[in-house]
Amino acid sequence: MDKNQIAEILNHQSVSSQILQTLFFPASALYYELLLRIFDLKYTPFISIGLVRVVLFSLAAGLLVSLVLNLIPAKKLSRILGAVILVLCTVIFCIERGCRSMFGLYFGLATVSTMTGAAVGGFASTVWAGFLNIIPFFILSLIPAAVFIVFRKVIISDKKHDNIIHISTGAGVVICHAAAVLLSLMGGAKNYFTYDFTANNAVSNFGLVSSMQMELVYSVIGMPQADLGSYVEKPPILLGNSEVNAQTQPNENSDVPEPPKEYGFNIMDIDFGALAAGETDKTLKSMHEYFGSLTPSQQNEYTGLFAGKNLIFITAEAFSPYFISEELTPTLYRLTHEGFVFKNYYQPDWTQSTVGGEIANTTGIIPTWIDGKWASVVAAKDYMPFALGNQFAALGYNTPAWHNHLYSYYGRNKYLTAFGYDYKGGQGGGLVIPNAYSWPESDLEMMQATVDSYTDDYVNNKTPFHAYYMTVSGHAEYSFIGNAMASKNKKAAQAAYPDASEAVQAYIACNLELEYAMKYLVDKLEEKGIADDTVIVLAADHYPYGLMTENEDYYNELRGFEDTELVTSRYRNALIMWSASIEEPIIVDTPCSSIDILPTISNLFGLEYDSRLMIGRDIFAQNYEPNQYSSCMPLVILINNHGQGTSWITAAGVYEASSGIFTPNEGITVDDDYISRVKHLVEGKINYSKLLLSKNYYEVIFGAG
Question: What global pTM score does this model have?
Fold first, then answer.
């Protein structure tokens, strides 16, 4: 019996056969979602309440497709549309699986659409390697479309369905969707379904189909908003010039003991109380109240230590300290063991890949998703007075910036300009290096092409400089095939680590180029006699998640111990803050992360800024007690990466979201409400990070732009 005979039989179909036809698309939707979930077991438990929500949303979406297609009178058109829908689903699910495989993240449709062209053009070998990783998923994802194309006349027959089938299908859509929404608004997933929605959170908790629906709805009606008033510190501390002497003492309602009289506070003349009283916009009013209620950072013995010096700030692609050794990487070893030595520094994964780390490093703001857009896209249109480029440019410094790969990727040409930099990048962006179209490009060549331009101006004309670099040599894919930096430094890496896997050897080889670049930079500063006048800061954009494949976690091999992306130890990293003027290492044990870099630099250089308007904090501020809650205490936020919640670290201990357990440091006892208060503080910082950019709040405060 061939398929045409089967179709003819089903033209005289019973109610039961109509039901079976109706169920094809719900079954297909569920198949895609379960397939995605099975391939994501490393991060997402298969059996959970999230699975129930995924099933309900999938059934609702599939039933809706069946209803619409069966109501179309022209069955040929219905079959074409059905095939198109299934092919699109295959493509979208494969793209998202590829994103998860390469970046450890699910991206929204808006993000994928804006990245695709540049990614294929600028990261072709990485994209191809990512596709090879998902071939089994790709093959399995073809099944629904293939089945439909073969049996399309069976699944959508020429005979109309009975009205009772249509009514029942419509009722199924309503019931399944309503039940799924109700479950989504209950328990811990409620935030991810509303004001804390991101594609990455939503796919794990509600499924990809639902995530796409939510993204489209929120793009039209706007994102829901949290109860902003709940984050205002109680009692409110509306610190204005009339209520606080910036050079003597904090407000009497401050939640920390009175600091030493000799130190003031990093605040500006902003009367948040008056701003709140005169504001009619509810969101802006809540922002004035919130920022005014925060305790500012106390100035300290390091305030102004580097005043008048030059600054070179480097965001290093996939940097990690575990490849550093005195023998193989003497310059990086020197820089990580001299100057300030941060023993408790973390580089969070902000769920926005390289650009998220770069925004955190350069703005002190948590890079949240804003209406499905990168934080950088919104920041590029904002007034950003505290960005280091703008702060130093206002003092008359030269502020050049460079990136040795595609100059416009992520919109870097726009946001670095908004941050006050004279930016030049590779591949047509003004940076000329010998191997401009290799992959990845050389950090050493970037330094060789640029360092003299600003250092000579300082030596000859006494024009101070703040130079910024975003490197690329350390980029994945970590293989000796298709990675120019790995191939270039292969022999040195293999000689140093003969027993390591190829992935680890290739990663080390890539980062040897960063070592050579830093050696060139330091040698130039010393040769010109300006090493004492210059500060070097280097931090990663993210840890090298490219060392993780579908089957192996080579990052564990590199470090020599095991953990996963669900625990805080994965994000331990190194922060370089070095100047030849620091004669002895200064050990810093304070928990800190990338959003703390900008306020710390601002304090060290004696710049004018308001610590309440930064989400991070000056690492050296001492106006807190380790075992007590405070809005200005050290706080590392490891934002939710896999739908497990947000982990955090304070001077009192570590909270692991994946287990829900807080482990206090030795000898530390905290109050009963400490954990809940810190959780709420973390949530507030995430929400207000989003609002700082989406409301262009600095322009509101300072009336400039």
Answer: 0.86
